[in-house]
Amino acid sequence: MNTLGQQSNVLVVGATGAIGAAFVRRLANQVGVQRVWAASRQVHSPVMQALVEACGDTVVPISVELTDPSSIQAMAARIAEETPCLHLLINAFGILHDDEAGIRPEKRLEDLSAEGLLANYQINAMAPALIGRHCLGLLNHKDRAVFASLSARVGSITDNSLGGWYAYRMSKAAQNMFTRGMAIECARRARRVICLALHPGTTDSALSAPFQSRVPTGKLFTPDFVAEQLLAHIDRAQPEDSGRFIAWDGQSIPW
User: Fold this and answer.
1) Fewer CB within a 10 Å sphere, N or C end of the chain?
2) Whole-structure pTM value
3) What CA–CA distance (Å, rounded) separates 27 from 9?
4) Which residues of 173-208 are buried (b: 16+ CB within 10 A; e: fewer)?
5) 138 sits in which H/E element
6) What is the mean pLDDT of residues 61-89?
7) Which domains does the chain have, with CATH numbers?
8) Distance between CA atoms of residues 54 and 52, nearest Å
9) Which residue in 206, 243, 250, 196 sits closest to 228, CA to CA?
């Protein structure tokens, strides 16, 4: 990445997910990156252990519980104690289904539940917003910085022609509204911060696993491919791109 200079600091939230881990690996091997904070609830998991073993001291695991506002605040406070600033923050997490909790994408109105709505909103909308709230001070400095959240095309109200998946669509639309709003505010008070909503496409991950049989040939992407594509768009983003909703192939998605 040409826009990450020497001694750059990065935070990837959701680092043990398929896409998050791919981001961590690529960024840890990026020339100039000093530290990659790898945030996850599962800091002692085999995935995190493998990241640390592969990337060495560049990767620093940090615990966060995304449904707990105090945990998000504590994560930001710890980073601030050890890192003067962040140059890139990527929210690489999301929830679509949770079999243990009985949460599945809805096919009709009768499938809606308060539990499903709340779980989707907490992870997909509230968590990115609170991360932005507590980490803006780390991003707001003399150098360029990017705040990027993985969204989903199905969060586009304009693009919705199929219906269903109410909780996921609603929570992603809320996340998109936050990203757009943060971009507008940053243009006034943190002008070097670029805020992006990114659609990764259908990626081979636990989130998409139950639905992969419906994916057209050639449209199921590896996590590493997705990380490569999205990092390229992050690298090219200019201040005038702040507040955009961008797909993996660079196309703008309507809100």
Assistant:
1) C
2) 0.94
3) 10
4) bbbbebbbebbeebbeebeebbbbbbbbbbbbbebb
5) helix 127-139
6) 97
7) 8-247 (3.40.50.720)
8) 5
9) 250
